[in-house]
Amino acid sequence: xxxxxxxxxxxxxxxxxxxxxxxxxxxxxxxxxxxxxxxxxxxxxxxxxxxxxxxxxxxxxxxxxxxxxxxxxxxxxxxxxxxxxxxxxxxxxxxxxxxxxxxxxxxxxxxxxxxxxxxxxxxxxxxxxxxxxxxxxxxxxxxxxxxxxxxxxxxxxxxxxxxxxxxxxxxxxxxxxxxxxxxxxxxxxxxxxxxxxxxxxxxxxxxxxxxxxxxxxxxxxxxxxxxxxxxxxxxxxxxxxxxxxxxxxxxxxxxxxxxxxxxxxxxxxxxxxxxxxxxxxxxxxxxxxxxxx
Amino acid sequence: xxxxxxxxxxxxxxxxxxxxxxxxxxxxxxxxxxxxxxxxxxxxxxxxxxxxxxxxxxxxxxxxxxxxxxxxxxxxxxxxxxxxxxxxxxxxxxxxxxxxxxxxxxxxxxxxxxxxxxxxxxxxxxxxxxxxxxxxxxxxxxxxxxxxxxxxxxxxxxxxxxxxxxxxxxxxxxxxxxxxxxxxxxxxxxxxxxxxxxxxxxxxxxxxxxxxxxxxxxxxxxxxxxxxxxxxxxxxxxxxxxxxxxxxxxxxxxxxxxxxxxxxxxxxxxxxxxxxxxxxxxxxxxxxxxxxxxxxxxxxxxxxxxxxxxxxxxxxxxxxxxxxxxxxxxxxxxxxxxxxxxx
Lengths: 293, 343
Fold this sequence. Notes:
Strand order of the largest sheet of chain B: 1-4
CATH class of the largest domain in chain B: Mainly Alpha
Structural class of chain B: mainly alpha
CATH architecture of the largest domain in chain A: Orthogonal Bundle
CATH superfamily of the largest domain in chain B: MetI-like
Distance between the termini of chain A: 24 Å
Largest interface: A-B, 106 and 108 residues
Oligomer: heterodimer
Number of helices of chain B: 16
Radius of gyration of chain A: 24 Å
Number of strands of chain B: 4
Shape of chain B: globular
Number of helices of chain A: 15
Number of domains of chain A: 2
Largest sheet of chain A: none
Mean pLDDT of chain A: 86
CATH architecture of the largest domain in chain B: Orthogonal Bundle
Low-confidence stretches of chain B: none
Low-confidence stretches of chain A: none
Mean pLDDT of chain B: 87
CATH superfamily of the largest domain in chain A: MetI-like
Helix content of chain B: over 70%
Order of helices and strands of chain B: HEEEHEHHHHHHHHHHHHHH
Helix content of chain A: over 70%
Number of strands of chain A: 0
């Protein structure tokens, strides 16, 4: 945009800047508040007397002798064995990402390169599948899984999540593959590669940015899932999010709510780090299907 | 690409989708036609010091036996769909004939669990979606006008509400809006009402859930619009300026038409995601005042000691039909576009 178009009255600039500041406050403040509060005792985190207690930790100082306490974290990680759920989540998330990407790159490549009409219909079908609320699908699995003794195990959940995330993965990788010129694989095939070799040795190396972006979203879908994991995993195989929910059931006892608060903060921190390092990929992923398509 | 190669490439992905998305829909439909077996009752004469009487008890072993033989339950046809917990045909009919006014009819209708959940789901979907689109566009325009130095950190902070786990985000806001949390107690102070609780009133709970919904999906529409704004051609903007269009007119007649396809895309995604609203209800423990279709399915499957597969499946089928209705306009439009392109 040229210089003249960027000139705007000072009052408008002020309004815009204020608007952004208000939005940022709304977006970030809840996280900061909860993070800070997770190091306090419950009487401070929920302080009716004065909201400043939560900042300075007045009750925390009285109850524990210091303004900060790690007792919430200790309760969650040690007493309630939150670490077990963390391990389960890691297993599920890593497997889901790897399998989703393997199936998705193959399928997305085929959809992007096939000029036939059925490729379009498959994409439409994937869109319809994408719209299915997950819980309706889960209610279809439960009874057969119980009958065949598949219920409660991590591998079952992993396969189910891969399948549920497949429509989204296909769409995203498909639109990334469309951006890679057809000439590349065609010239490789002229040189004597088979289709698969062209895909493996020519296309995949230039596809890494797209694969990483899609991998990030698969990660988020698997990490953030509650519906599938809450209903398909047994108690000992629980991942973090259902575990946090089960804390809530038992947290009416005084003090225990801080376990849930610290578990929530523990589960959110990896996501912060992720956004910090992969912001560019996330933004490009969100816009991949939209801006170009 | 040859058909044969295409099939080999797409096969693993397609197999996964057919096995775990298409087949479960059939499984859901089949399950919805069955209900739990009746319990096998045995009558036994029990004689005590005060005479004999017959007692009826459940024969656990025999019940388990039948359950094992026919795990689906007994065939019930479409009765589950029409019973009180789903479409409630009888209740709706009697409410219709008894109600003296339309308002009264709707009052009676909304006491039925399915219609209550349907109303919330639809209200949520159609309130949150427009707010997210309009506010997202405003934020995108505002951020776009910032100096480049501030754009990166702004986008980082803006992404957070969307990236964070829905249940966790809901919990964080739930704790803050608790009567003793910071937002809850501030509201009490502002309205000078110590009894004010966002959880107790139905309207306030609905508003709270929708505010959460807007908060959580705003980043998505913001980012997509922001990326779209980067591609608006400068020449057109300049031409509009030379023709005397003011700031607002440039947005209204150049920018908005240019990013209209994005609006369609965002609307589609938001409608699909909002229609399955579920985690916020769990996070806010709002089931007393607000239930969604997904929530009643969850409740049938996880709510109590017994799992009501038949009932959950019937609600699932009805939800799938709802999703279908929601998608019809989009599919027709896409189909038309596709045909126009290929001709």
